[in-house]
Design a protein that fits this description.
Elements: H1 17-24, H2 26-34, H3 46-71
Length: about 70
């Protein structure tokens, strides 16, 4: 296969890894924006932004675990 070519999963011609990626990853960004109200970074500088993003993702994951534990 040529470098950079997209390999299909075999289920159908348009189910590429890019389409499957949308199903798994991108809803998390929407949940963080909508439910957590995160629209922009408060800090400047790549290191501070990375730290802020890590904190936001950690809170998101902890809240998911907390909600799952309460539902069970």
């Amino acid at each position: 296969m040529p470098r950079g070519a997209v390999q299909t999963t075999g289920a159908s011609s348009f189910e590429t890894p890019y389409r499957l990626r949308k199903q798994v990853v991108e809803p998390v960004f929407g949940q963080i924006k909508q439910a957590r109200g995160f629209r922009q970074f408060l800090l400047r500088g790549i290191e501070k932004v990375r730290a802020e993003w890590t904190m936001i993702c950690t809170v998101h994951n902890l809240l998911k675990l907390f909600n799952l534990a309460n539902a069970a």
